[in-house]
Backbone:
């Protein structure tokens, strides 16, 4: 394992489970000091404990990304604890689906917009505001989905719309702020080894059997594979990647 992020401070939202936790663990394994952020203190503490047991450095900060004051405080606390904000990963998001658009509850639509779109917008604003004041700038990676800009499927129109918005927002923000020394990119995962890819009542083994015929790769992506893509885009290896949308979905959108 290399140590591409030694001496770097990394903020990961939605770090209490799933892809967010995998991203936080991966950055810590490569030397970063990690802020694990989210709404649930207990799961964030679990992530931090996993990092510390592995010899890494991390702290948990609770925040609601739909509140601008929370996001600004999150960035402030990151800098207070670790001295800078070198990398931010905007992973926090929610899924609502299972019905045609005409039957999607308005409350679900608003929740999707508030967290998946406004939450990323507010996070970007606070993160860029800090990074562009740093001599070394920074790197931001947003998490979208292959559902949206790349593929569509029935029953998840609201989710698709918000994740397509994340991809578009990323590319626009990347052009706005590369001159400020802030690189912004996006990773768009497909089905991964998290509860989100399980159908109602489905087991992990049943999902594995289904994916053998549904995915060109024949399986879901591991959370570590998604994390590896994020670390690449955040690293100096991707210094000329600006507004890149990296799809990691086993070929579904090919």
Residues:
């Amino acid at each position: 394992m290399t140590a591409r992020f030694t001496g770097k401070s990394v903020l990961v939202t939605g770090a209490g489970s799933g892809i967010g936790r995998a991203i936080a663990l991966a950055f810590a394994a490569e030397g970063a000091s990690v802020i694990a952020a989210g709404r649930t203190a207990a799961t964030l503490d679990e992530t931090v404990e996993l990092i510390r047991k592995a010899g890494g450095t991390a702290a948990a900060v609770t925040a609601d990304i739909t509140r601008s004051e929370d996001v600004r405080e999150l960035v402030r606390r990151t800098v207070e604890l670790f001295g800078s904000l070198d990398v931010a990963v905007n992973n926090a998001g929610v899924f609502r689906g299972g019905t045609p658009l005409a039957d999607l509850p308005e409350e679900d639509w608003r929740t999707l917009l508030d967290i998946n779109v406004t939450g990323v917008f507010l996070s970007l604003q606070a993160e860029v505001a800090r990074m562009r004041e740093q001599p070394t700038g920074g790197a931001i990676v947003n998490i979208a989905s292959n559902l949206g800009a790349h593929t569509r499927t029935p029953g998840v129109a609201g989710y698709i719309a918000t994740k397509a918005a994340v991809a578009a927002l990323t590319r626009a923000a990347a052009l706005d702020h590369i001159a400020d020394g802030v690189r912004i990119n996006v990773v768009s995962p497909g089905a991964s080894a998290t509860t989100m890819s399980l159908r109602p009542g489905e087991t992990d083994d049943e999902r594995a059997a289904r994916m053998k015929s549904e995915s060109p790769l024949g399986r879901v992506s591991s959370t570590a594979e998604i994390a590896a893509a994020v670390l690449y885009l955040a690293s100096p290896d991707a210094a000329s990647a600006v507004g890149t949308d990296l799809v990691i979905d086993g070929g579904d959108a090919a």
Summary: Helices lie at 18-29, 41-53, 68-82, 106-131, 157-177, 204-214, 223-234.
